[in-house]
Amino acid sequence: MTAALSMGPVRIFAFGIFRTLTVSYQPVYLFDRLIRRYHGYETYTRGKHVLTRDTLTRQAFDAIVEHILDRQLKPGDVLPSTSELTEQFGISRPLVREALSALQACGFVEIRSGRIPVVGKLDGRLIEMFMARAARMQDRPMSALMEVRIPLEIQAAKLAAERSSDEEIRRIGATNARMASALGDSKLYPELDTEFHSEIASASANHILNWMVVSVRAELMNVMVAVREYREANGLVGQEQEQHDSIMESIRDHDPEAAGNAMKTHLHSSLMLVREVEDLAGPRDVIVPPRLGSLEGLHEAG
Q1: CA 24/CA 261 separation, integer angstroms
Q2: Angle of the 207-233 helix axis to the 188-203 helix axis, nearest 10
Q3: Digit-coded pLDDT (tens) for 85-95
């Protein structure tokens, strides 16, 4: 298999997150391997990747991921059989099966009938796992996620204004209209809010950006419900809908600059409220379920 040094920067980033999440949880591990390969500490024989260091299962895991990336395999493409992988790596079948099972557990590989391994479908689960774990290492986790979310969604709004089709604009507009009708519903409105932003990300026509936006919002969903309670307690309900209207109008008019500015105004406003909620509830209490249970006294304090 081709050495990891042939991987481009985007692939190294993606593989690094994937490897960090699913096996060692050590961000430096990939780069350590790249250095060791560069200095010849891992052995290649006649095109075969002979596994000689670290655990064999871990290296088999890495090698299968590299096989998928090097060959640009798509979801559903068939991988080498267990026996072929056993021969290629020079290790036992149980170790290969362990590596495939680990890959299957995180959705990178599917094992179909007859135990044929195929490339799994792309989804945002690994990004969500990474975001959830990384957020909990921050002193103010929800504010930190909002700071990540802001530039992503500003870019999504700009691209949606440039690239969205008439049908996508119709869907975004319909969701915005439903939000306006549900403004007084504290449960439904945050759900529609999430749908609205997800549709904008989808209309950006950038799948990577879309997954990043959706994954960050998934971790923020519960705190946004708490923010809604804060708005209700402080007479702020309605401001967010005006901001959504401005975003929608800019996308409909295919005005990227206006769309980006409208999204920036909206999300900076939301960030200020998230910080207020964190201050009242305690930064870490906001992310521990049940989220709203940690906000007793919020109305009085607000």
Answers
A1: 40
A2: 150
A3: 988 888 888 88
